[in-house]
Amino acid sequence: MTRARWASAVVVGLVVLFGWTGAAWAGSGVASSVPTDGAVLASAPSAVELVFTGRPVAAASHVAVRDAAGRSLAVGEPRPSGDRSLVQTVRSAERGDVSVTYHVVLADGGEKIGTLWFSVGTGVRPARSSDQGGEAAAPLHEHGIDPLSAVLLLVNAVVVFVAVAMLVLRPRRGVEPPPAAAQQPEMSRR
């Protein structure tokens, strides 16, 4: 195989790999919620259910439910309900807007992060603004970049790149027949 073919194969492989993982990452999302985003409720629900198009991993997911004052209404951790939904039990909310902020890890490796709102006892759709507690819920769960892991990943990527480059770009050696053994006179033993 020529160097050009090897390089083409590597490029195609990388495109397929990153294209496939990108499709898996974007393939699952929030299908619905109970209560729905923007719902106007007469009384507070006892739980919030988030339904996904992919299978959520409850142990790696976080759901924050907050009232208009930013107080947490969540009771315990989210639990799975069926194959594609998470349920977060909540305390009864006072009259006002409620925000549900979620960071859900899906079994296919994707993550879904978002916020939805509903109102309780107001008779009007919730206002989606920072003064209604929406931003207060958002920083509840954030990830920073671990510098050590980032450096190790970079070093690994460089090592793999160099190894592949060495394999692809190394000079090709033809198969040479072994040299004929030269006849050497036997030495007499004394």
From TrEMBL:
Residue stretches spanning the membrane: 148-169
Source organism of this protein record: Micromonospora sp. HUAS YX12
The keyword Repeat is assigned to this record: no
Protein name: Copper resistance CopC family protein
Biological process terms in GO annotation: response to copper ion
UniProt entry keywords in alphabetical sequence: Copper, Membrane, Signal, Transmembrane, Transmembrane helix
Alphabetized GO MF terms: copper ion binding
Cross-referenced SUPFAM superfamilies: E set domains
Domain CopC: 30-120
Origin: domain of life: Bacteria
One GO cellular component, as annotated: periplasmic space
